[in-house]
Structures are given as C-alpha cells and as structure tokens.
Amino acid sequence: MEKQQFITYAESFLEHSTSMEMLCAADKKMENPILYLNEAARDFLQHGGVPTIHIPRGSDASVLLGQSIHFFHTNPERERNVFVALADGTIVQYDNMLKLGAWLLIPATRPFTTMGMWWPSTPLGGTIPTHR
C-alpha cells in the first residue's frame, strides 16, 4: 500500500473519532515523521491543548505533518527506543499517562496494520483519550 493510499485508508475511519489519533512512520532513523492527525488531534493542538506547542495563530495543526513525533517528547531517545520495540514486535502496545495543564492524556501507542499486512514503514498509531 502506498503512503497516500494508507493515509486515505486511515482517514476514512479515524477522521471523526472523538479520541485524538496520530499516525507516524517508523522510518529507519526513527525520526518518526507525523503522517496524519485526525480532527480531534488537530482541534486539541490548535486551541492550546498543549501549552508548550506553539502553532502560529491562524495556522492549522497540519503544519506538524512531516515533523518528527519526537517534537512532543521531553526525552526523544527514550521514546525512540519504545518505537523501535513496537516496530520490531518486542512489545505490542505502549501505554502512558501525561498531565498537561488541566488535561490528562492517556496515549496507547501500537503498530498499525492494514488488512493484516504491515505497511512497508510500519506506521505507529496513538489513540489518546483525554480527560479534563
């Protein structure tokens, strides 16, 4: 499955989910560029959900597409190691809890498959239920 086909496929069932969904690629350097942000994730990021992330006023959160997911991480190397373990099957899911201002984020990160087939770069997906 080509990259754009994959994104279109993912968008078809993730776009209107009420949980925040982010997909990134498990590239060889493990920079993990962001491939997709659903509507809930874009809204959260655009409206100050994460105080440390500065998206230019009037810009769409999609400006983050192609940027490393580690932009969000205080310890990128630790997270890269988790992503390597997810991509190579050492672990099947990584759960975490993050307190950001008034928000509690509970991301569940896992490798993403389509129809039982691994996408060539093994995308990683994060479902992030939010609680305030």
Mean pLDDT: 75
Summarize the biggest pleated sheet.
5 strands, antiparallel
The run of helices and strands is HEEHHEEEEEEEE
- The total domain count is 1
Class based on secondary structure composition and strand pairing: alpha+beta
The H-level CATH homologous superfamily, spelled out, is PAS domain
CATH fold label: Beta-Lactamase
The main sheet orders its strands as 2-1-9-6-3
Low-confidence stretches: 114-123
Q: According to CATH, what is the class?
A: Alpha Beta
Question: Whole-Å distance between the termini?
Answer: 38 Å
Cα shape = globular
Give Rg in angstroms: 14 Å
Strand residue percentage: 15-25%
Number of strands: 10
* Helical run tally: 3
Give a verbal description of the structure.
24% of the residues lie in helices and 24% in strands. A hairpin with a 2-residue loop joins strand 4 (98-100) and strand 5. Mean pLDDT is 75; it is low at 114-123. The strands form three sheets. The protein has a five-stranded antiparallel β-sheet, sandwiched between helices. Strands 4-5-10 form a three-stranded antiparallel β-sheet, with no helix packed on it. It has helices at residues 3-14, 39-46, 76-87, and strands at 20-24, 34-37, 94-95, 98-100, 103-105, 108-111, 113-114, 117-118, 124-128, 130-131. The chain has a single domain (3-131), classed as PAS domain (Beta-Lactamase). By secondary structure, the chain is an alpha+beta fold. 26% of the residues are buried. The radius of gyration is 14 Å and the shape is globular. It has three helices and ten strands.
